[in-house]
Amino acid sequence: MNKVWFITGTSKGFGREFARAALERGDRVAATARDTAAVGDLADRFGDALLPIRVDVTDRTQVFEAVAAAKERFGRIDVVVNNAGYGLYGAVEELSVKELRDQLETNLFGVLHVTQAVLPILREQGSGHIFQISSVAGMVAAGGMGAYSTSKWALEALSEALAQEVAPFGIKVTLIEPGAFATNIHNAPVSVARPLAAYEPLRASLADMVGTLVRSAAGPEGAAAVLLQLSDMEKPPLRVLFGEAPTQLVPAAYQRRLETWAEWEHLSKAADGN
Question: Annotated catalytic residue: which of 152, 159, 172, 231?
Answer without folding.
Answer: 152
